[in-house]
Amino acid sequence: MTVEKNIVTDTIFDLYARQPDGAKYRMLAGALRQGISAGKLPPGTQLPPVRDLAWRLGMTPGTVARAYTLLTDEDQLSAEIGRGTFVAGQAEQRPPLYVTRPWAEGPDGAEMINLFTARLPDLGQVALINQAFQRLSERPDRALLEYPTAAAFVPARQAVVDWLSAVPLGVLNHEDVVLSHGAQSAISLVMQAVLRGRRPVVMVEELAYPGFRRAAELLRAEIVSVPMDAHGIVPAALEDLARKHEAQLLCTSPELNNPTAITTPLDRRREIAEVARRCAFDVLEDDCTFLGESRPETYRALLPEQGWFVSSISKTLTPALRIGFAIAPQGKRQMLRRVAENGFFGLAKPLADLTQDLLTRDETREIVRAVCRQNAVYVRAVVNALGDHDLSWNEHSPFAWLRLPPGWRSAVFCLAAEAQGVQVRPAEDFAPRNGFAPHAVRIGMNAQIALPDFEAALARLRRLLDNPPEQSMMA
To answer: What letter does residue 171 receive in the DSSP assignment?
Structure first.
């Protein structure tokens, strides 16, 4: 059922005018709920474009987008890419698979835009996942009454091999793959397979994904930070530290360092691989954050007997399912599989079947490509707003790295940003506990926020950057 657009706009305007005073997005969301429940906005009704309704109601497009998003999360509206936003039909209204709020509220009720971490837009993956669950529900009941076996996981492992076919991993067999509960679980599995002795040593980049350190600490490993330059790990420093500490493992993200967005070029990777050969330590490569397709050789290809590879679907499809995978180097697959089997008997069979279903569908790849394109839009917004400051970015990255101008310290800047309703992540979260942390922050691409709201948050950050609190003191 459809209703003429100008009638819909007039209806929403009248309902909005009757709402009790409050935040504008809440008033608009209340008006829409009232119109839907009263039948004034029946199922199938197309709502006005965000900018058109914002002009009629005298508010910003971001406020309208936020109200639309709120009701979409409640399944009262459905957003269709390229077509618009519609009132959902009764058959479509169901509890959402994964609801996460891209903002929070402060004590005064003001909105708090979350750029602390990256968040994925729903570009069809929620429906795709629910359809996969439906297909799994039609399988024979007996599959839910048996302990999983190694043979039962072959199709899922092969699906991972095919999913990673464009990644230069060297010779790869499904038996080299272990499915895990997200990439953090995969990192822990690799460490358990590699580390030996009472106090093993794990090396990490001096600014690195904090999950490396957390996993190493759980295994009572000593953690050594390796200096970096503009191209990543410094090979000479790596060799000195590896020999001094008799390190067993290096953890690194060469394709996209988290948090700095540095990409380590192939010639530097080859130097690092030579150091690993000479010093006889393994290399764990975390590839979870890179959203592109083409890339240089991985450490698994450069170090066939020492290179481990970890990835997941959390940054490209959904973090809710906690699907990750660890890939062993040649000759060490049994070590990895033994850790998984002794630790948790392997992934739950239904989750492995879901992995196989999702990773073997053409529409999954299409959705991932759409997610990557949308991420690039938000990256461009960051560059447009903050690019004349000291900003490191990559269109294939779900975050950007901002080095603060003189007068700002990262902790103070984060507090000031939060006071302006924007959450960003300080450099201290990625540095060693007792090490030096630069005055910098990481900005996550929160694509669950309408682009105008995202741009407005960046504008608030820009005003802070242009007005450091210590500026007058340095004049």
So the answer is: S
User: Using CA atoms, how far apart are residues 254 and 283, in angstroms rounded to an integer?
Assistant: 11
What are the start-end ranges of the E strands in 234-355? 249-252, 282-286, 307-312, 323-327
Task: Give long-range contacts, CB 8 A cutoff, 24+ apart: 429-435.
Answer: 429/210, 429/259, 430/207, 430/208, 430/209, 430/210, 430/258, 430/259, 431/206, 431/207, 431/225, 432/206, 432/213, 432/223, 432/225, 435/206, 435/225
Query: 5-96 — its CATH code?
Result: 1.10.10.10
Neighbours of 270 (CB within 10 A): 14
List helix spans (H) across 46-199: 50-57, 61-73, 125-137, 154-163, 182-194
pTM: 0.76
Percent of the chain with pLDDT over 90: 68
pLDDT digits 0-9 by tens, 1-55: 344 667 888 899 999 998 888 888 889 999 999 999 888 899 989 999 888 898 9
Class for the domain spanning 149-360:
alpha beta
pLDDT exceeds 80 at position 95? no
At residue 254's C-alpha, the angle toward residues 252 and 258, to 5°, is: 70
The CATH superfamily of 364-474 is: Aspartate Aminotransferase, domain 1 (3.90.1150.10)
User: Helix 210-218 to helix 182-194 angle, to the nearest 10 degrees?
Assistant: 50
Q: Per residue in 352-396, pLDDT tens?
A: 999 999 999 999 999 999 999 999 999 999 999 999 999 999 999
Return the domain boundaries, the chain.
5-96, 149-360, 364-474
SS3 112: strand
